[in-house]
Amino acid sequence: MEGVLLGFGIVLALVGVGIVASILLPTRTRAMQEGLTPVIYYITNPALMFILLAETELAEVLSIYTPIALLVAAATAVVYALFSRFILKRPAAQTAVGAMASCYVNAGNIGIPIALYAVGSSAPVVSVLLAQLLVIAPVFLTIFAWCGRKTSPAGSSTAPGPAGGSQSQRRSPTLARTVLRSVANPVTLGTAAGALFAATSLTLPAIIWTPLEMLGQASIPLLLMVFGMSLRGQKPLAQRSLRADVVLGSVVKLALMPVIAWVVAYYLFRVEGTALLGVVAMAALPTAQNVFLFSAQFGLKVTLVRDIILMSSLLALPASLLVAVLLG
Questions:
Q1: CB under 8 Å, gap of 24 or more: what pairs does 77-85 form?
Q2: Mean pLDDT for the stretch of residues 9-15
Q3: How far apart are CA 226 and CA 243, in angstroms?
Q4: Tell me: the pLDDT tens digits for 246-305?
Q5: pLDDT confidence of 243, banded at 50, 70, 90?
Q6: Residue with more model confidence, 13 or 3
Q7: Would you tell me the crossing angle of helices 45-54 and 186-200 to the nearest 10 degrees?
Q8: Per UniProt, what is the membrane topology (predicted)?
Q9: β-pairing, 166-168 with 158-160?
Q10: Whole-angstrom distance, CA of residue 209 vs CA of residue 51
């Protein structure tokens, strides 16, 4: 129980710093957001994923936990996509963004302290990170890139530029180039490099490891502060046309995904006890701010993502406490 409260307390404090900064420095907020977003995307997030994975015992997480994480995320995303596409009649880009927001959990920020303090093991959170950053994120980034091409002006396409902006091209990139660019994003490459070091027991000299560790440790505070800055002046469910989507995404994320995780872990993989608590607790986490970062990076509308993140963050604490009470 204490681990759940500690994890959420850390996140809320850092988001609060971003909100306060946007209030005290209203004329500088936009510049700070535009400057920090590419720094997080290209530098600090890849460093964090590398250092987190490099010292992990991969055999433990790959045997059971990672397959569970993949199945749970896939089932959750499919349920959202079916409702969004065929019942709410939403376009592909909006459906893709909402589907990722409903299944991509905040493992890196809240999941780490919860796993360490409430479960006593990093295996559940590392498995989710591996599944999300090596499989789920590349799949969704490919979809985002395709959606970005479809929604770009005729004769041009929008692609992430070196400073986090967009660059217009005369011809739309081929599907192969789109997939390659999506899979070869900095965060996934950092995660893959960390997994490689963990699998081969490679180590880096302190002169290299220490700066990487410092950069990685800066990623979570920066990302949460940027998200906090984006919240000033925003009201959840303010855009009437997105209310059904936000409610759907929040319910799927916080109510359905933990149930799916329990069913998959308990009945398919025979996971019990503290290990089962860890799996379900990870599924009950709120939507990761990375979804906001990814959707903005590919030029997609972020209002839906921001509202789902906000609603899931507000409601995830009681959801996580309920999980802890039922399975703890």
A1: 77/102, 77/103, 79/252, 79/256, 80/248, 80/249, 80/252, 83/248, 83/252, 84/245, 84/248
A2: 81
A3: 24
A4: 999 999 999 999 999 999 999 999 999 888 999 999 999 999 988 988 888 777 778 899
A5: very high
A6: 13
A7: 20
A8: Multi-pass membrane protein
A9: antiparallel
A10: 8
Smallest CA-to-CA distance from 260 within 268, 83, 313 is with 268
Distance (Å, whole) CA 253 – CA 245: 12
DSSP 110-133: IIHHHIIIIIS-SHHHHHHHHHII
Q: Are 124 and 281 in contact (CB under 8 A)?
A: yes
Tokens of 241: 């046309």
Share of the chain above pLDDT 70, in %: 85
User: Which pLDDT belongs to residue 168?
Assistant: 43
Residues 6+ apart with CB under 8 A from 173: 149, 157, 159, 181
| pLDDT over 50 (residue 170) | no
What DSSP assignment string belongs to 178-203? Answer: HHHHHHT-HHHHHHHHHHHHHHHT--
Residue bearing tokens 């909402």: 98
Average pLDDT over residues 193-207: 92
Six token digits for residue 85: 């596409």
Strand stretches in the chain, DSSP E: 158-160, 166-168
Q: Which helix (H) or strand (E) holds 75?
A: helix 66-82
Are the C-beta atoms of 258 and 320 separated by less than 8 Å? no
Class of residue 268 by CB neighbours under 10 A (exposed 0-12, middle 13-18, buried 19+): exposed
Q: What is the pLDDT of residue 164?
A: 42
Other Cβ atoms closer than 10 A to 262:
21
